[in-house]
Design the sequence.
């Protein structure tokens, strides 16, 4: 229903009056009919009729702009602002989430049941909380949710979000991980025209606070976080050449990287099928068993190799016909016997300077340590065994240059220790020749050395993914103790990283560069406030308003194709 302004002429004069009109549907289309002629009315009368019409026909409430009066006298002295809260970050995260159709996906796999708050909504709370202010579920429930605009955007009151409900949402989300990976692969490929011909594979670890006795995967192993005192799990991740995540797996904390390869390759091929993709891995994944596994499946690969493999290529390192890829980098192709593989020798000027400086620094430390030990032998008599242990500790702390020195502990006539040492010029010559060099191996024989090197160097995207997981999204440390909760925690971090990379890809598409962190931080400064408007008649109006973006923020929003809502609806008190 709505009010219509009508006019009629009587006695040569033009009169105006109001009519209450109702819209209804017929077989021939929508029609209108007059419910009542109301005559001439002032503003107060029109508002009264409008409220009555809304109570009578709830289906047509939207025909009226707002239940609030169109004008009212406000007491300016009592106008105030309340409840300032974060808006820009959670709003941007929700826009990204909807752009990836994750809201629809959650609703499909987590349908409404008897629960008071849908699990699909709670899943969005978890992901947006991890993206905007990563912390524990307790912090999300008690602090961040109320201090942000999530309640306004998702329609869930703050008192309905608690730690227990968030934990149960983790449990509900975890079983849908395979379907989620497939959905993301298709949607990301559609939005950003991703190329899946190159798969980058790497492994990292994340440690636990606590004993994690209820998690059989939590074990001690090689810690990339430099926390060997803590139990950990290993996280294997596959990303595209631009760093877009495709899938991940969680392994026991004591698993060697090389033992995870077969499971991860079969997992990814089970999700996306087998195609002529190129797998790129660093030297930690390389073993003869893994190379044989890749060959048997006719999979193509580019692998890093151990540093000691350079010894086999000493004549090629001395050759002069290296090809320059760019300033400071040279490559040389060495075909393997049989023609099934090629080796790519790479020499980096920057890496050479770094390794040379390291060798010189460790050499200087060893020299100073040996001189100190020699002086102590001259000052007082010492047993050879004690000196040998001191020398061993010194060389063990400086292994980079330990092979340069030939150290002998001798006995004098009285049976006390004397130290003799010299340098091996052969080792120094080899060090100068091999500094800055490394070897790649591949069965992709139809690519140039430059193409193979550029594909391998894309592994930095996988390393960057782990770095963002651990810093911006605070994957570590893990406080959960149960295995399923740990895996669900990693899944939420993975989804938040997908939103992060979606923002990065969008920024590249619209010409904002490759700094999603700066864009996100700038838009996160946008706030939402409640403007309280006390009126002269005692009614208090509340307008929920979004702060006006700065010029810089407006430019970012324009490039991203996003429009901020000016206000959200609130009820009068």
Sequence:
């Amino acid at each position: 229903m709505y009010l219509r302004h009508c006019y009629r002429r009587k006695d040569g004069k033009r009169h105006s009056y109001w009519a209450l009109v109702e819209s209804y549907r017929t077989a021939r289309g929508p029609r209108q009919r007059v419910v009542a002629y109301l005559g001439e009315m002032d503003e107060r009368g029109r508002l009264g009729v409008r409220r009555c019409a809304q109570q009578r026909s709830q289906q047509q409430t939207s025909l009226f702009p707002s239940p609030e009066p169109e004008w009212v006298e406000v007491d300016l002295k009592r106008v105030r602002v309340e409840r300032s809260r974060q808006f820009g970050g959670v709003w941007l995260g929700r826009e990204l989430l909807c752009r990836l159709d994750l809201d629809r996906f959650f609703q499909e796999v987590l349908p409404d049941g008897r629960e008071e708050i849908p699990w699909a909504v709670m899943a969005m709370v978890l992901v947006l909380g991890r993206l905007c202010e990563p912390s524990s579920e307790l912090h999300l429930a008690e602090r961040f949710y109320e201090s942000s605009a999530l309640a306004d955007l998702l329609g869930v009151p703050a008192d309905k979000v608690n730690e227990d409900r968030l934990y149960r949402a983790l449990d509900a989300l975890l079983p849908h991980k395979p379907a989620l990976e497939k959905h993301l692969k298709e949607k990301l490929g559609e939005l950003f025209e991703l190329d899946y011909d190159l798969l980058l594979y790497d492994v990292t670890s994340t440690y636990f606070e606590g004993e994690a006795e209820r998690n059989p995967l939590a074990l001690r192993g090689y810690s990339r976080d430099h926390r060997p005192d803590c139990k950990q799990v290993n996280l294997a991740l596959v990303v595209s050449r631009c760093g877009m995540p495709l899938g991940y797996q969680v392994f026991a904390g004591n698993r060697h990287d090389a033992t995870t390869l077969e499971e991860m390759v079969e997992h990814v091929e089970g999700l996306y099928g087998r195609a002529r993709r190129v797998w790129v891995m660093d030297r930690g994944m390389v073993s003869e068993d893994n190379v044989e596994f890749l060959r048997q499946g006719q999979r193509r690969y580019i692998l890093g190799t151990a540093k000691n493999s350079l010894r086999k290529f000493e004549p090629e390192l001395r050759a002069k016909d290296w090809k320059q890829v760019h300033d400071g980098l040279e490559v040389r192709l060495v075909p393997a016997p049989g023609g099934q593989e090629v080796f790519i020798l790479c020499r980096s000027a920057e890496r050479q300077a770094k390794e040379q400086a390291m060798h010189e620094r460790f050499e200087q430390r060893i020299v100073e340590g040996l001189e100190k030990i020699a002086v102590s032998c001259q000052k007082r008599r010492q047993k050879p065994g004690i000196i040998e242990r001191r020398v061993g500790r010194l060389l063990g702390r400086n292994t980079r240059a330990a092979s340069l020195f030939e150290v002998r502990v001798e006995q004098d006539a009285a049976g006390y220790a004397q130290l003799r040492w010299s340098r091996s010029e052969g080792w120094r010559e080899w060090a100068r020749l091999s500094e800055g060099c490394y070897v790649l191996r591949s069965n992709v024989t139809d690519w140039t050395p430059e193409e193979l090197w550029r594909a391998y160097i894309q592994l930095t995207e996988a390393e960057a993914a782990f770095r963002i997981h651990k810093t911006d999204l605070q994957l570590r440390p893990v406080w959960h103790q149960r295995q399923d909760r740990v895996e669900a925690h990693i899944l939420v971090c993975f989804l938040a990283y997908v939103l992060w990379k979606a923002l990065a890809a969008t920024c590249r598409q619209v010409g904002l560069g490759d700094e999603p962190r700066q864009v996100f931080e700038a838009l996160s400064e946008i706030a939402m406030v409640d403007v309280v408007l006390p009126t002269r008649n005692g009614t208090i109006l509340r307008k929920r308003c979004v702060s006006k973006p700065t010029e810089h923020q407006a430019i970012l929003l324009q490039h991203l194709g996003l429009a901020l809502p000016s206000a959200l609806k609130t009820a009068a008190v």
